[in-house]
Amino acid sequence: MTIRHGVLSVLALAVAMAAGTSASRAEVAISLYSGYQGALNSNVSGSDPAGVGAFNFDQRWDGRSFSQNPIYWGARGTLWLDGFDLPNWGIELDYTHAKVYADPLPAGWKTFEFTDGLNLFTANAMYRFQDPDRAWTPYVGVGAGISMPHVEVQTTATSPKTFRYEIAGPAIQAQAGIDYALTDWASIFVEYKFDYAWNDTDLEGGGSLKTNIATNAVDVGLTFKWK
Torsions phi, psi of 159, nearest 5? Predict the structure, then answer.
């Protein structure tokens, strides 16, 4: 699955939610966002029999949100359930194009990154703190899904290079932010988002690599909504 397909899936699901719930007066929102994303250090283990052999080390990661393409960004669709007698609660489908670069590279390695990207697909439960007398609305959310990174690994100058998307494992997400209404149908938001992804990947030549990556991000985005 490419990034474009991931975004189209999120937006298509949002449109389907809108079409299926209009009679219930549920609110549907589609959002696009970007921002600053970093990552915590993680342990890396595995084996590359066609390259460096067995390995186990701690790795520092760099997010490079805007300094190197592709940039960090995401898209989501949210169904708010007020029309189902669940005021303030919502269901969200989120795609996050996070990314990490090994910095520094392990000694002797030629490539080690998840930059197109560390793709995360999650389904989240949302809650917002509405007040009709104000334009701003705080919200929180938690959820789970899958990690589908683009694995770019080459452990020596002569070993095979892994360069492909893989379904690598589960992911969890938490977010908290504030949405500010510009009109009845558009708003902007700022949020903090935490993602944790378990990545168990295969390498060319019969190897494997495992690393669990936690990312932190401050997002700024634009939302379009209707009932």
Answer: -80, 160
> Comparing C-alpha atoms, which of 109, 126, 7, 125 is closest to residue 55?
109
- What is this structure's pTM? 0.89
Burial class (CB in 10 A: 0-12, 13-18, 19+), 152: middle
Q: Are strands 89-102 and 111-128 parallel, antiparallel or unpaired?
A: antiparallel
How far is it, in rounded angstroms, from Cα 215 to Cα 160? 28
Q: What average pLDDT does range 188-201 have in this prediction?
A: 98
The string of pLDDT tens digits covering residues 89-99 is: 999 999 999 99
For 113, other C-beta atoms within 10 Å of its C-beta total 22
Nearest Cα to Cα of residue 112 among 125, 103, 124: 103
The two three-digit tokens of residue 104, written as one number: 């520094």
Query: Does residue 124 contact residue 175 with C-beta atoms inside 8 Å?
Result: yes
